[in-house]
Design a protein that fits this description.
Helix 5 links the parallel strand 3 (65-69) and strand 4 (94-98). The protein has a domain at 4-114 and 181-220: Rossmann fold (3-Layer(aba) Sandwich). The radius of gyration is 19 Å and the shape is globular. 45% of the residues are buried. A 9-stranded mixed sheet has the order 2-1-3-4-9-8-7-5-6. It starts with a strand and ends in a 22-residue tail after the last helix. With 242 residues, the protein is of the alpha/beta class. It has helices at 13-16, 18-23, 28-38, 57-61, 79-91, 105-111, 206-220; strands at 4-9, 42-47, 65-69, 94-98, 118-130, 144-154, 164-171, 176-185, 188-193. It binds zinc ion. Zinc ion (ZN) is lined by residues 99-100, 151, 197.
Length: 242
């Protein structure tokens, strides 16, 4: 069965900002979903202004990997939906958080920290260096990905130390940033990937989309062990009384 991906997008900038609208006329989610469909995934979009933000129970239960892009309306996301997404991640649904999703309710809840960072919009060059070349998320990428123009995000990024660090970004203005981070939460896998400001054509870049497709494969793979929790009154082996 194909991995089922739901691409969630706030979808506000692309309807109000002329520059974003020109780059993503049908929304960022449409571009990402189409690219992932071309890579062989079963994709659908979901947006903030749909009932239940497009994330009703059936959709979430039939999602192997959820991709999250949000920026200006994080506070409008219903806490009950955040709770359901959180529960699904702990049960094994993969989650890929993009760019300004660092401040989303779901990412902050999973991290437990402020997720604050420094930023600047100055049309500067970003170079994302692969710092974990054996990681499947970096498959097919060279030493680095270079983006001619991006928004800068700089350290310190207030996140827990990543379980795995895949990319570190350098920016023309001098800052660096942990831009590709993985986390294990419950049975689920989480990947944070930095690039993707709405006024740059970042999600039209082949290597950026290759990383996202690799990440879908990585965090959508069926989980490993199925642990049991709770009281186990009967031991597996007879306990010898001493
Ligand atoms: Zn941005």
């Amino acid at each position: 069965m194909k991995t089922r991906v739901t691409v969630w997008n706030e979808y506000r900038h692309e309807r109000t900002n002329e520059k974003a609208k020109a780059i993503y006329p049908e929304g960022i989610h449409a571009v990402i979903a189409r690219s992932l469909a071309d890579s062989g995934y079963d994709t659908k979009g979901a947006t903030l202004d749909e009932p239940q933000h497009g994330l009703d129970e059936q959709t979430l239960n039939n999602t192997d990997v959820l991709i999250w892009w949000g920026h200006m309306a994080h506070d409008e996301v219903d806490d009950r939906i955040v709770e359901k997404v959180h529960e699904r991640v702990l049960q094994g649904m993969g989650l890929i958080v993009l760019h300004s999703g660092h401040y989303s309710k779901i990412f902050k809840k999973l991290m437990g920290t402020s997720c604050a960072l420094k930023w600047r919009e100055a049309d500067e060059k970003e170079r994302l260096w692969v710092v974990n070349p054996a990681h499947p998320i970096a498959a097919g990428i060279g030493e680095y990905i270079e983006l001619e123009q991006e928004e800068m995000y700089g350290e310190h990024f207030d996140i827990p130390t990543p379980d795995e660090l895949v990319f570190v970004s350098w920016f023309e203005g001098g800052e660096v940033f942990r831009s590709g981070c993985t986390y294990f939460r419950g049975q689920g896998k989480v990947f944070y990937f930095r690039p993707g400001h709405e006024t740059y054509p970042t999600y039209h870049h082949a290597d950026v989309m290759r990383v996202i497709a690799n990440a879908v494969q990585w965090c959508g793979a069926a989980g490993g062990a199925k642990p049991n929790y709770g009281h186990i009154p009967v031991p597996m082996e007879a306990i010898v009384s001493r």
